[in-house]
Amino acid sequence: MAEPAPFLTDIWYFAMPSAALTRGGMQAKMLLGQPLLFARGNDGAPFALRDICPHRGIPLSCGRFDGKEVECCYHGWRFDGTGGCTAIPSLVPGQEFDLARIKVRRYALAEAQGNLWVWMGEQEPDGPPPQMPDMEGRAPNLTEVMEFPCHVDHAVVGLMDPAHGPFVHQSWFWRSAKSIHEKAKAFGPAPYGFAMKRHKPSSNSAAYKLLGGAPETEISFRLPGIRTEHIVAGRHRIVNLTTVTPLDANRTEVTNSFYWTLGWADLARPVLRRFVRRFLGQDRDVVVLQQQGLRHDPTLMLIKDADTQARWYYQLKNEYGRARDEARPFVNPVKDTVLRWRS
To answer: Cα angle vertex 291, ends 171, 246, to 5°?
Structure first.
C-alpha cells in the first residue's frame, strides 16, 4: 500500500456549501496546506484569493470586506475579487506607482447545485465541477461537515472500503455483525474514476427499505475524493454526495450532502441529521484509532477484492499526476470487472 502522496492539483476540490458564504461575508480556510480567503460580494458573486497580503504577509482575512473589496488590516491596501490591488493609502500625490503590478493570487471558483468548488492549480479549469444527476437547480436538503484527523488518502480509502460496514457501522438502522454475507458487484470506469454499476441495494442495508418499492442505486467515485450515490426509488430520486477535501497533511474535511425529492424527508430532517452525524462520526472515530498505529510507520497492505477500490484510487491518482506532468490525456486504468467480498 502506497504511502500518503502529495495532493493532486489542477483539479476541482469541494470548498464549502454555498450557504456557508453569505453576501458581503468572507471566510478563511486552509486547503491543501494553502491559505485561501473566500468571499461573496454584495452582488452575490463569490471569489477566492490567496489569504496573504503581498505587502507584509498578514492574512487578508484579518481585515475588512465591504462587499466589493478586501482591505488589509495592517496598512489598508485594498484588493478586488480578481486579486488586483485598487488602493495603497500611504501613497502621496506625485508618487508614481503602478497598482497593476500588485496582485494576489486568484483561484477559479464555481458555484453549482448549492456547493462551491475551487480549482487548485496553476492551469485554468478544463471543464465544470461535478454535477449531481437529476438535481439541476437544486441545493442539498441536508449537509453535514466533519473534520477527520488524518491524511486525505486514509480518509478516502476508509470511506470507500466496502468491508468495514458491519464492524464500524453496527446500528439497527444499517447493519450488524451477524448480517455479513457474500456480495458481487459490477464495476467499470467513469470520468476520472470508477462506478459500481446500477443495482438493487444489498439486503442487509436496512436504510434503503425506508424508501419503499424496489430502489436501485449507482455509486461512483472520481478524483480527487468525490463519491456520489444516485438512488432511484419509483418516481423519487436521492443523491448522496460525499466529498473529501484535504485541509493540510494531517487534517481532512469530509462533507456529506443529501439531495432528495421525498416530501416526507423534509419533515424528518432533524432525525435524519442525527443518523448522518452518527454514521460520519463512526468513520471518524475509527480513523482516530488508526492514527495510533500509523504513528509507528507500519507496512500496510491491500487485498483483493475487498480493497480493489482502494487500489484503483492510488492508480487513478498516480495516472492523473503523470498525465499532467507529461501534458497528455488522462488514461483511466480501471476496466470492467465484477468484485466479490463479504460484508
So the answer is: 90
